[in-house]
Amino acid sequence: MLRKDLRILRRSPILLGLLVSYPVIIALLVGLVAGYANTKPRVGLVDEDNLPPIVEIAGQKFGVSKTIAEVAHNVKLVRMSKDDAEGQLRSGKIVGVITVPAGFIADLQTAVRSPSLIVETGTGGVTPRVQQQMQALVYQLNRKLQRAFIAANLRYVTLILNGGDGSFLGRGIHVLGLEGTQKLLASLPPSQRVARIQKFVRVARLALGQTGNALQATANPIRLEQRTSTGRTWVLSAQVQAYGIALTITFLALLLAAGSSAAERDENVIGRLGRGLLSHGQFVAAKVALASAVALALGGAIALVFGIVIEAGGVVGGEPWERFPLLLAGIALAGAAVGAIGTLVGALAREARTASLIAVLVVLPVVFLGLVPREVVAAAGWISDALPFVHAVRYFGSALYDPSPWATLGRETVWLVGLCAVFSGLARLGVRRLAG
Amino acid sequence: MTLLRALGVARRYGTITALAPTDFELAEGESVALVGPNGAGKSTLLAILAGALEPSEGTVERREGLRVGWVPQQPAHYGRLTARENLELFARLEGERRPRAAADRLLERFALPDDGRPSAELSVGNRQRLNVALSLLGSPDVLLLDEPTASLDPGQRRRLWERIAGGTICFATQNLDEVEHFADRVVVLRDGEVVFAGTPREYEESELEVFH
Known about the structure:
The complex is a heterodimer of chains A (436) and B (212).
Chain A: H1 2-10, H2 13-37, E1 42-47, E2 54-57, E3 60-63, H3 64-71, E4 76-79, H4 82-91, E5 96-100, H5 104-110, E6 118-121, H6 127-162, E7 164-168, E8 171-175, H7 177-186, H8 192-209, H9 211-219, H10 238-266, H11 270-274, H12 280-312, H13 324-349, H14 352-371, H15 378-385, H16 388-401, H17 406-435
Parallel strand pairs in A: 1-4, 1-5
Antiparallel strand pairs in A: 2-3, 5-6, 7-8
Chain B: E1 2-13, E2 16-27, E3 31-35, H1 42-50, E4 57-62, E5 68-71, H2 83-94, H3 99-109, H4 124-135, E6 142-146, H5 154-164, E7 168-173, H6 176-182, E8 185-190, E9 193-198, H7 200-206
Parallel strand pairs in B: 3-7, 3-8, 5-6, 6-7
Antiparallel strand pairs in B: 1-2, 1-4, 8-9
């Protein structure tokens, strides 16, 4: 029966092409949607302070556009009027508005009080994410300004230490400095009072010499060191490989098993087979084996392409080829478990076109339930536990990149075998209906 | 000697009765015609006798080791496989020791094309001959045929009967010529119930109005 089904499949190039290309296209679309989720949200920038192109703060010049580009890593800031911003925020074209109020730069330059930036967000589901990104933006801006203020403060400290000319609040000043004071004291006749002042100056010079480090440490009690890895890009990450393969074989195995099972009735052959030539259990086993074999061929090919691309791209770590047999075993097992569901669908639908339609209707929730994080909707996690997709994803991810995969592989294998057995049992009952 | 016996077999689909409780016997060497209009229950009775359909009630008794060949009304084979591939596949499932030789034999006996064309592309007559040929795999002791000649022209009907007549058979038909020429006994079904059982001569003499 398996050989017959494979032969029929080979003689249906359009069907085979659709079965292969459709899940691959869906996987790509899901990837694009996931990629879109990572794109920068648009945020309106309302400038009520008429920001000049160059701003001088704490003696340091800042190009406004350049600074905005440097601090706005995760959002796309778009300058607009207040009215435009309100309108676009209401219509959802922008996810937030950041307003620079009048007097902002003046307050920054005098450093008498902290100026405020006003952030307004919508009430949609992305609000927490936008708020985080706004906080990150202000944090980046504060860090830049902090560095400028620390540098300015250190210049004053240096002036106090070494003496010389400087400016404060725009006015020129001349400072004798501790070094000058020490020289002046040395020229005075020695006395107990002069000695006490000299001691103070020495201690003050030592203490002020450490001011730079102390200011840096106070400003950043904990420093975050960021290093850029040269590992896998997002597209080639283990998780994407696991999702891509699982999604593809879920589509393929479910549709194939459902269509193939129902086609036996369409061909009017089910009665002939049911006369003791093939038991219901053997019928289900043949369809499960078909789904498993085709999933193995396509899933294996996809994994192979991933591996070759990773190797060709010189990605650090490379493809773990020694784990490939483990991955193939998982693909075959997952294909069988999904095939059992497909056979059940085909048996209940009783007609190939209906079965294919129902299979598509079933496969989308199966896949998307597996994509919903358990932390977001707990019920989605419980339901997807009863379906093979999420177990396939965990198995593939672990088989490919877990340093110690055996516990996960063992657990997911038990799940997949159990689900295959349960759905095969249900499919066996369904085949009675198909034959009746 | 009775090869096949149905005791009170019936088939219901929800509230619809396709076949009321029916008794039926088929003796060795006998040729029985099941006659009746569309929907009379002929196909249902044959499918139950063949083991292709579970009766809702009643039982079917078969002589131990009896092999039954069944020709369903609609051709039952894989359209994307050739006639040879269909014959070899079902020969394997029937437990033929040499499936290829069995396929060769039936291809020749039924003059079926062996040119690599999928069976869906064969003529109606060829498809029906393949349908009948498949039922002969496994050397059946009894042949159950559901209107095997319904879609054939007179020449094709004659040639088909030449190939299948002679053994123990039970066939459904609406063609009274076939009853006259090939049946030893006639069972008439109407609305799922047996309304007549006797010889062709008795049937003819009864002047029973089977087809309205």
